[in-house]
Amino acid sequence: MQFIDLKSQYSRIQPGIEQAISRVLEHGQYIMGPEIAELEARLAEFVGSAHCICCSSGTDALLMPLMAAKVGPGDAVFTTPFTFFASPEVVALAGATPVFADIRPDTYNLDPSALRQAIERVVQAGRLKPKAVIAVDLFGTCADYRELNQIADDYSLLLIQDAAQAFGATYRGERAPSLAPVGATSFFPAKPLGCYGDGGAVFTDDPGLCEIMRSIRIHGQGDDRYNNVRIGLNARMDTLQAAIVLEKLRIYEDEIKQRQRVAARYFEQLAEAPVKLPCVPGECVSVFAQFCIESDRRAEIQAALREADVPTAVYYAKPMHLLDAFADLGGRPGDFPVAEAASRRIFALPFHPYLQDAEIDRICEIIKQA
Ligand SMILES: *Cc1c(COP(=O)(O)O)cnc(C)c1O
Question: What is the pTM of this model?
Answer without folding.
Answer: 0.98
